[in-house]
């Protein structure tokens, strides 16, 4: 099969969050399975050019229709750790992708509406006719409408689209400009509720909704999140639309890259280990303590790794620090906050706890340190308010670091409570789960985990080893996506 991924990120060259990892990881898995995959991305000025090999011109004179005129673009091609990527560079005074950032501009809607249009125009003009176009998140939500309302009539009638939603919170709420600019000219037609009109703001378009309405298959990043999006408020107003299109909507759990996240081969950790040499994990714990100046005592290390924002349940992260200290554990936090208030709060905590030899707060983004923490910690807390899939618990499991997670989103599909999960046999359980967002809930889960570590160390080790047994690589998701691609190729 010939598959083209169109996205605003692809790790490691363009990465702001989990989306980048998925685009890269899935593409690699599909190639391993023998499919041909190409990735189309914007050519941002601030992307990591050092991760691109052999960047060269692929299509120098691409004219992309825009507001009845056209913008001149150049398309470059290069390899990102083996994946073929095309980068679109528009030459106009809008400077869409030369802003020193990926997202966060006032005209983000127009920047990515342009990117969506340009990606399809590139496919059309360069005679690329993929079997499946796989696009991601609100940034590429206009691709399904554009394909089926315009490009289908210009020689792309056999192309099928799979649309994956990684985060319902950002939907691309836009004005009619996005229609006029991209050539979707009949405003009244697209402004209907069964098309792109936002379900709650009658004067706005919703680009993500457009993707849902027009795509041949819609997925989100875990089965439980697919359910939540339809039946709870995490669908952020799109639940009804998803109901209407339920026969095309499903959840596919993300995978993680086991060449990178794997204690057997991890080049960032001082001592590699496997299930058979699990005792070597202790050497990483020692190294972690040395690195972060924690004292070497007989206590478990509880960790938190992740963004510090409301999605991640920061009030519970804060509470977990003090509760762990209180219960005879050490705590390590690695997190970055974009919101000034949350940042100030954790800066304050860091100063307050500075002299405590049982805790270290590292504020900022540090990939290398994150590997050492996954390898050195005994437990990892994931108290998210909502979590479409969540990678940290899956990485933790691979490193034999027991997750203590809130039962939401993808966490429900990946973490199974040692004491209470009745759907999973005891020998398959791998962590601790709590449900409420109050302090008592997380306390009870942490209590059970820390208690087991202190009083039944053999049982705790058994639990960690059971977690390492799980396969959360791209193998299963890759297979599921191939099934979805096959389905849309043969049923539409
Ligand atoms: P989200 O995509 O919502 O941020 P995920 O759990 O899906 O959350 O993915 C988070 C990824 O980012 C994980 O690989 C985690 O290790 C990494 N990460 C998050 N914060 C940091 C940080 N401060 N330093 C290093 N890595 C981080």
Automatic annotation (TrEMBL):
Starch synthase catalytic domain sequence ranges: 3-242
A Pfam family that the UniProt record links to this protein: Glyco_transf_5
Keyword Glycosyltransferase attributed: yes
Catalytic activity: [(1->4)-alpha-D-glucosyl](n) + ADP-alpha-D-glucose = [(1->4)-alpha-D-glucosyl](n+1) + ADP + H(+)
Pathway linked to the protein: Glycan biosynthesis; glycogen biosynthesis
Top-level taxon: Bacteria
Molecular functions per Gene Ontology: alpha-1,4-glucan glucosyltransferase (ADP-glucose donor) activity; alpha-1,4-glucan glucosyltransferase (UDP-glucose donor) activity
Enzyme class: transferase
Glycosyl transferase family domain location: 295-449
EC number: 2.4.1.21
Alphabetically ordered keywords of this record: Glycogen biosynthesis, Glycosyltransferase, Transferase
Keyword Transferase: yes
GO biological process: glycogen biosynthetic process
Residues that, per the record, bind ADP-alpha-D-glucose: 15
Xref: NCBIfam families: glgA, PRK00654.2-1, PRK00654.2-4
Family according to the record: Belongs to the glycosyltransferase 1 family. Bacterial/plant glycogen synthase subfamily.
HAMAP family: Glycogen_synth
Role summary: Synthesizes alpha-1,4-glucan chains using ADP-glucose.
Protein name: Glycogen synthase
Organism, as annotated: Chlorogloeopsis fritschii PCC 6912
């Amino acid at each position: 099969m010939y598959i083209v991924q169109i996205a605003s990120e692809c790790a490691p060259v363009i990465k702001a969050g989990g989306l980048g990892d998925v685009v890269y990881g899935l593409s690699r898995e599909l190639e391993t399975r023998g499919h041909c995959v190409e990735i189309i991305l914007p050519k941002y000025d601030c992307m990591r050019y050092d991760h691109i090999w052999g960047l060269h011109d692929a299509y120098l004179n691409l004219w992309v229709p825009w507001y009845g005129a056209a913008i001149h673009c150049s398309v470059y091609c290069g390899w990102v750790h083996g994946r073929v990527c095309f980068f679109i560079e528009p030459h106009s005074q809008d400077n869409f992708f030369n802003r020193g950032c990926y997202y966060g501009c006032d005209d983000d809607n127009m920047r990515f509406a342009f990117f969506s249009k340009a990606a399809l125009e590139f496919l059309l003009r360069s005679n690329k006719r993929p079997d499946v176009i796989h696009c991601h998140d609100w940034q590429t939500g206009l691709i399904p409408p554009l394909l089926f309302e315009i490009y289908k009539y210009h020689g792309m009638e056999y192309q099928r689209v799979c649309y994956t939603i990684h985060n319902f919170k950002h939907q691309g709420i836009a004005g009619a400009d996005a229609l006029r600019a991209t050539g979707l000219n009949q405003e009244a037609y697209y402004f209907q509720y069964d098309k792109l009109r936002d379900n709650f703001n009658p004067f706005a378009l919703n680009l993500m909704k457009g993707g849902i309405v027009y795509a041949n298959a819609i997925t989100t990043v875990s089965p439980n999140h697919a359910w939540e999006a339809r039946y709870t408020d995490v669908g952020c107003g799109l639940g009804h639309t998803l109901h209407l299109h339920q026969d095309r909507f499903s959840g596919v759990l993300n995978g993680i890259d086991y060449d990178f996240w794997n204690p057997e081969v991890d080049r960032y950790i001082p001592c590699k280990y496997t299930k058979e040499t699990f005792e070597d994990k202790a050497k990483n714990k020692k190294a972690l303590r040395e690195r972060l100046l924690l004292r070497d005592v007989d206590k478990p290390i509880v960790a938190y790794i992740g963004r510090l924002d409301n999605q991640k349940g920061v009030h519970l992260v804060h509470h977990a620090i003090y509760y762990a200290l209180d219960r005879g554990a050490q705590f390590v936090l690695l997190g970055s906050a974009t919101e000034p208030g949350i940042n100030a709060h954790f800066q304050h905590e860091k100063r307050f706890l500075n002299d405590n030899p049982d805790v270290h707060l590292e504020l900022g983004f540090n990939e290398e340190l994150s590997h050492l923490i996954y390898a050195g910690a005994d437990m990892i807390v994931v108290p998210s308010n909502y979590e479409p899939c969540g990678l940290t618990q899956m990485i933790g499991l691979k490193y034999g670091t027991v997750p203590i997670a809130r039962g939401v989103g993808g966490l429900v599909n990946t973490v199974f409570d040692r004491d209470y999960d009745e759907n999973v046999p005891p020998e398959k359980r791998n962590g601790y789960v709590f449900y409420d967002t109050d302090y008592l809930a997380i306390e009870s889960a942490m209590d059970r985990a820390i208690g087991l570590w202190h009083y039944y160390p053999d049982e705790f080790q058994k639990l960690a080893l059971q977690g390492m047994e799980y396969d959360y690589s791209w193998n299963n998701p890759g297979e599921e996506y191939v099934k979805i691609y096959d389905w849309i190729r043969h049923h539409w």
